[in-house]
Amino acid sequence: MKEAMPVLTAGAGLHETLALLTSQLRPDANHKEDMVFLKDVFSERSLGYLMKIHEKLRQYERQSPTPVLHSASSLAEDLNVWFLSHQAVLSVHDTVAQKNFDPVLPPLPDDLEDELEEESVKIVRLVKNKEPLGATIRRDEATGAVIVARIMRGGAADRSGLVHVGDELREVNGVSVIHKRPDEISQLLSQSQGSITLKIIPAIKEEDRLKESKVYMRALFDYIPLEDKATPCQEAGLPFKRGDILQVVTQDDPTWWQAKRVGDSLLPCAYPHLFPACLPTEDCDCEGYFNGQYIAGLRRSFRLSRKDRQGSSGEGSDPGDPDFLTYEEVTRYQQRPNERPRLVVLIGSLGARINELKQRVIAENPHRYAVAVPHTTRPKKPHEKDGVEYHFVTKQQFDADALNNKFIEHGEYKENQYGTSIEAIRSVQAKNKMCIVDVQPEALKRLRTAEFKPYVIFVKPRVPESRRRRSAATSPGGGEHGRITDEDLQEMRQSAIQIDQQYGHLVDRVLIKEDSASACAELRGILERLERESFWVPLCWVRT
């Protein structure tokens, strides 16, 4: 009996037809090899995939698809315009790339080779536009030679690497400078545009190229180079204010640093070091060098008389010592999770009421902030607990601790002794809490140690010009404290000025107290940032 032939339905696809056809192939004796070949072809996987794709396309065709866009021709036109415009840009690029924009340099003198051999002269060709050359020159008093005194970091001379301190300058663009004054030579240099050719006798020992430094200094005073007569080039001086962080780029010069203020986008030139007894006259072409664009100079340190020191003070300065610190080397520091929290020190001028501010912040979050429990010799009151409000000790014990320098500060009030001990601060920090203390400014010297790494906040009330400009019944610190006279305001103002003059260089933040609520919010924000951000601290605090 003959096997029935399978029947295809009307909707059978090409893929199903191919599969059915393959299953019906039966080899016979006469055409066995042909049948095997056909079966292999129809069974090929790639052919099956093609059939499926064909079916999907036919199915999509039966759905009568509509165009996604009706503006294909305009889109093609836009693309064509885009390609043409970019073709023009590429054409311009090719044209520019084939041009030579190097300056046309004048030919070398015919007798140059003989001169080079005779005096070891070096010909230096620099390209500068409207920028200064970035070098100072001076006249050697012994020989009369014109000497390169300094190279300003970032200028054309520095970038070339061909001009060095100590080189003797002979000619500028073929003009001899042997008998010219330094200011005439500087004018000649500044007026030269495009290419500039220098004839130089190299120094016997050429200095190494200036290297980028990672030395940072905190300025402890204000500096205005135009007022410093010892500055060899006032246009290349770096003005700064007390508290500015300076990155010292080079300390090669024994008298002058070259530095830039941290935060300036580009490099400014250099200044203070040891106050020189006598500096040779120098001149330069650095006009306009200090628009915050290059590195500037600064003197490394100063010798100031007691009169000059009015309004400036260095850490640990002795009234009888004419020398005091004018810079403090610093680095960035951020508290690590396993380290003790930094000590927060509040100092305040008259009317600031910093104890109230401290207590309010601690009361809001006693789990994070705490006060160092003070010592006292007064009798304990019934509601007080030893070690909570105070550490109650005898007068003999208090005097012994004071003699052994265990207190950061202490004093007498109504015949009772009070003091804050170092151990009380350590006790708070051992609990992983941030200790907040308010002290007299004189105590800062004792607290500024690597152990405590104090962050000093100077709180001062905003004092109006006169009593008439404010509410007559309100004190600057907030609250009702009776009438404030003009004499009271003057005392507050003078108190803030005095603290700023004597201790301002040790302050990390100034908090102007408008009222208790806003001052508390500002202090809270400072404390929160102190735990998660990095700050500048003296290098000796973190150096291991």
UniProtKB/TrEMBL annotation:
Residues annotated as transmembrane: none
PANTHER family: MEMBRANE-ASSOCIATED GUANYLATE KINASE MAGUK (PTHR23122)
Entries under InterPro entries matching the protein: GK/Ca_channel_bsu (IPR008145), Guanylate_kin-like_dom (IPR008144), Guanylate_kinase_CS (IPR020590), L27_C (IPR014775), L27_dom (IPR004172), MAGUK (IPR050716), P-loop_NTPase (IPR027417), PDZ (IPR001478)
Organism: Amphiprion ocellaris
Similarity remark: Belongs to the MAGUK family.
Domain L27, chain residue ranges per copy: 10-65
PROSITE patterns (UniProt xref): GUANYLATE_KINASE_1, GUANYLATE_KINASE_2, L27, PDZ, SH3
Alphabetical keyword list: SH3 domain
Keyword DNA-binding attributed: no
Residue span, SH3 domain: 212-300
Region annotation Disordered: where it falls in the sequence: 306-325
Domain Guanylate kinase-like, first and last residues per copy: 341-528
Domain PDZ residue range list: 123-204
Name this protein carries in UniProt: Membrane protein, palmitoylated 3a (MAGUK p55 subfamily member 3)
Cross-referenced SUPFAM superfamilies: P-loop containing nucleoside triphosphate hydrolases, PDZ domain-like, SH3-domain
A Pfam family of this chain: Guanylate_kin
Transcription listed as a keyword: no
